[in-house]
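batch_manifest entry 22 of 60
target: 4-hydroxy-tetrahydrodipicolinate reductase
source organism: Uliginosibacterium sediminicola
requested by: lab member K.T.
priority: normal
notes from requester: please return tokens only, no post-processing; we will run our own comparison against the previous entry in this batch. if the run fails, retry once and flag.
--- input ---
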Amino acid sequence: MTVKLAIAGSSGRMGRMLIEASQQTPGVELVAALDRPDSVWLGRDAGDFAGVNTGVAISADVDAAFALADCLIDFTRPEATLLHLEAARRAGKAMVIGTTGFKPEEKQQIAAFAEHIPVVFSANMATGVNAVFKLLEVAAQILNSGYDVEVYEAHHRFKVDAPSGTALRMGEVVAKGLGRDLAECAVYGREGVTGERKPETIGFATVRGGDIVGDHTVTFAALGERVEISHKAGSRMPYASGSMRAALFLQGKRNGLFDMQDVLGLK
Ligand SMILES: NC(=O)C1=CN([C@@H]2O[C@H](COP(=O)(O)OP(=O)(O)OC[C@H]3O[C@@H](n4cnc5c(N)ncnc54)[C@H](OP(=O)(O)O)[C@@H]3O)[C@@H](O)[C@H]2O)C=CC1
Ligand SMILES: O=C(O)C1=N[C@H](C(=O)O)C[C@H](O)C1
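--- output ---
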């Protein structure tokens, strides 16, 4: 059966890519496209950015979108995602959430919504990045003593949250593998006379510039050698295709919180 899709933030960088992906993915049908109530794009065909005619006009009416759609894909901002989750709960429909930058208590709210509706929530929908999460689990098991862990990420100049959701997830995966709690061992910046590096810490470095789509590297550095595990995105399409896969995965599910590891069968 076809999954009827609504896409939020449809004029955004990911929104445009998701609309394009929806036109190329068997088993999904775009039925609604959302943007802010004050967006200049309201009323335009959702496919205008990609040069295709979808027959779906961009609107700000979330409840009307859920009346048509089985699933909303949301790559917006945390405050918008939480409002969309309320509408999804009212309608009893599914959500795929790619938005990053949530506070811990907001993540708990998402988990609470997922007791009532099915949700895929993942900081990175790309298959390659999810493969890297698995590689990091293995690396942390083997390189569990004497290696300093540092996470580097680089993104475009327009990104508003740091470190990236993906970098934080990478930190969480490695911390768990090493038996540490990321909240206690993360170091998010260094400046001035910092003193020597504490061995139990996990450091983060953030670069912002130009149109970098998304680079992530985790370094395990010891005395005499280092291991680097990297992913570099050259296009946003892997995030969009992963999201289509996530929407198809949610078909027929009543509730529950899932991530791309569930979607890809990596757990
Ligand atoms: N999980 C993953 O694989 C990936 C996650 N992301 C994440 O997705 C999110 C979006 O990224 P990106 O597309 O680059 O961002 P953009 O700023 O390009 O797009 C965001 C879209 O959401 C809309 N929006 C923002 N606030 C609201 C609101 N309060 N109500 C309704 N709509 C709103 C924006 O409208 P307007 O422009 O009018 O403000 C815009 O259309 C980020 O959190 C990013 O980190 C990105 C790529 C991959
Ligand atoms: O904002 C972006 O562009 C991206 N955001 C996600 C993140 O914060 O991890 C995923 C990807 O790196 C692109």
